Amino acid sequence: MHELYQPREIEAAAQTYWDEQQSFVVSEQPGKDTFYCLSMFPYPSGKLHMGHVRNYTIGDVIARYQRMQGKNVLQPMGWDAFGMPAENAAMKNNVAPAKWTYENIAYMKTQLKSLGLAIDWSREVTTCKPDYYRWEQWLFTKLFEKGVIYRKNGTVNWDPVDQTVLANEQVIDGRGWRSGALVEKREIPMYYFKITAYADELLSSLDELDGWPEQVKTMQRNWIGKSRGMEVSFPYDQASIGTAGALKVFTTRPDTLLGATYVAVAAEHPLATLAAKGNAELQAFIDECKHGGVAEADIATQEKKGLPTPLFVEHPLTGAKLPVWVANYVLMNYGEGAVMAVPAHDERDFEFAHKYNLPVKAVIRTAAGDETPAPWQDAYGEHGQLINSGEFDGLDFAGAFDAIEVALLKKALGQARTQFRLRDWGISRQRYWGCPIPIIHCDSCGDVPVPEEQLPVVLPEDVVPDGAGSPLARMPEFYSCTCPKCGAPAKRETDTMDTFVESSWYYARYASPQYSGGLVDPAVANHWLPVDQYIGGIEHAILHLLYARFFHKLMRDEGLVNSNEPFKNLLTQGMVIAETYYRLEANGAKTWFNPADVEIERDAKAKITGAKLKSDGLPVEIGGTEKMAKSKNNGVDPQSMIDQYGADTCRLFMMFASPPDMSLEWSDSGVEGSHRFLRRVWRLAQAHVSQGLPGTLDQANLSDGQKDVRRAIHLAIKQASQDIGLHHKFNTAIAAVMTLMNVLEKAAQDSTQDRALLQEGLETVALLLAPITPHISHDLWLELGHDGAIIDTNWPVLDESALVLDNLQLVVQVNGKLRGHIEVPATASREDVEAAARVNENVLRFTDGLTIRKVIVVPGKLVNIVAS
Ligand code: ANZ
Ligand code: ZN
């Protein structure tokens, strides 16, 4: 054993051993408990960042711990390899996205391997490879035939200069991110997954996910947004509209029906189109509404604007004529694309009515009891008793809901309806680097799914996009084809799928990654699924997790899996944050400096007084800690840390610095501290091993001091087992091992018993650290004389008897005041304890001259002597 801890050497040796033994390659073993541990797979952006390292270390600690519990553990890894960054990099560097992506994957794989993750690499999946996406296309055709996927016109962001569709995040302040052109809304045919058909189940089965953070479930519930309301029809005023008919609206507040003072429709609504005929001003407004992003957040915050029309509708209960407005706050693809406006009780309507001087009629009594508070300062949005509503006056929300439904039903002008905020999932992207949509357009047969034997529709990999629309749409060699039904010349779809589609089912593919008979081999998939532990960033709390849950149900309904939910337990890891440093430039902009290039200045008490740039020695401002990000230049490259200290130090620091679900602050001194701790472990083990290994411990004959050491060993086992196994609190588990190390370093090493005890202690340290710092543990285990590898060893078993104390320390009080301590045998009777307390010298002193009235013994804790 080397005298010094040399991580580079021992890490290489451990990794070579695992590779040669194929230690992490797993197969189905009937009868053995399985544990499927999955970390969200990375996008191959170039190199690992700290967030990845944290995510994968957490997953690895859990996987290795479960393996030590004797379970058959599956921990796979792959690449979420399609997506826009590859296209952007391609344009910048003039390389094909495929080449860029595959090179990144190769590099990042070596990085992941250097972390020593217990991954079954034989199951690696890469979503941009045809052997992966062919199954996505296969499922697509099945779902298209079933009607779960359909095609209809959808609204997209259109960049008129770049002639391309933009994702919401590419629209910045209403303009295209590259061209700066004003973005337009455009209607184009798109494919949709009918996720709304599963809305109810996606909502209700959240209740079964006990192993998910409450916060994530709440976010999903809000996203799905179930609301019970009523659809209400406002008959057309034929004089102004010209035809018979009715304007349908959806409202969650039918109790406010008598407070409706106007109706408003979306710019795309047919009544808006009708009113705009021959009305240039209105047409211009409608066109303006079609500009700007389609993101909901933009719509919620934009200034409310509208124009009146000459059209009127009739109130369904009173027959009063209400004007029809066109308003930018009404969304076409929500509810009915029209609202009944109740300014007194709806925030948006209030703001609008205020601006355009529309009447406000209060129909709900406020909590303060106001009937007609005027002037109104704001809408009153709470539920309450009805007023100014004729026969409905005095009813509460529920009563009014039902009574108004009855009244509307009688006139066939309304009925209760449940509606979801969730929209169908539009998956068409007019981009190159994605999975081709397997549809062929034929003039006579329509949209024909590509037959199974013609799959996959392979994406050509040698294309360099130029940013102006999809290159596929300009490649006849890609899109020219014949119709599978009639054989006539036809055109292949050139849109690709949203990359969220690939990440919605990869976890299932890992079960049988090479299976060529289908998307999954159902028997094998059911052996492993659902995932026992899923780990990833909170940024995926909504979309990715919702889509994956949806896909699981789709796969279930195709007979591919038999569970209802994909992820039993979810751990959302916190952010990695670091200090930021900047200088204010003359133009007001900030230049950010990387922490590695900055030197901290401290006063005598080590308090930070300032910082300066290493290169020029001049001061920089300290900007506070923030999430590691390119924009603030505060990222620390994990590779440089691994190169300098080794993977184990890196892993130990990440797990020790904070619990996994909290944010982790980067600290150089924390890394150094972790490294020092591993060196201490090494030093103690080296000193021990160099004297030859001791014989077995004679447990029956331990001195008091030796019993204390053994108790420390088993206390550490107890603590670490609870912390890792039950709570995922790796930081406190590590603290328990550190406490044990303090004891072991001070323990006597004279007798053979002492040395046998230290052997048990060091073995325990190696085992408890094995999930966290697997390389050093691997080496120590061999040095401590074991033939087998620690990776095949079980987690240490707690010896309860070692925790039992021979003697107990009790607190002694006189009249409730602490007056001393006594040590008594753990087996002492109440009488013995009382007797020992009575003769304690402090007790004698404080009861001198008094009569002892009562002695209270709380076993194992204290004795209180009441004297007066
Ligand atoms: C009248 C009313 C009175 C409303 C009131 C609210 C408060 P959730 O809960 O999200 O489902 N709404 C309906 N369709 C809309 C559309 N296409 N664009 C914009 N807003 C629309 O919201 C339902 C409420 O959102 C509906 O109830 C409607 O306004 C509005 F005191 O109707 B309410
Ligand atoms: Zn045809």
Automatic annotation (TrEMBL):
Record-linked InterPro entries: aa-tRNA-synth_I_CS, aa-tRNA-synth_Ia, Leu-tRNA-ligase, Leu_tRNA-synth_edit, M/V/L/I-tRNA-synth_anticd-bd, Methionyl/Leucyl_tRNA_Synth, Rossmann-like_a/b/a_fold, tRNAsynth_Ia_anticodon-bd
Protein's recorded name: Leucine--tRNA ligase
GO CC annotation, single: cytosol
Residue window of motif 'KMSKS' region: 627-631
UniProt catalytic activity: tRNA(Leu) + L-leucine + ATP = L-leucyl-tRNA(Leu) + AMP + diphosphate
Species name: Pseudomonas cavernicola
Keyword line: Aminoacyl-tRNA synthetase, ATP-binding, Cytoplasm, Ligase, Nucleotide-binding, Protein biosynthesis
GO molecular function: aminoacyl-tRNA deacylase activity; ATP binding; leucine-tRNA ligase activity
Family, similarity comment: Belongs to the class-I aminoacyl-tRNA synthetase family.
Binding-site residues, ATP: K630
Entry's EC annotation: 6.1.1.4
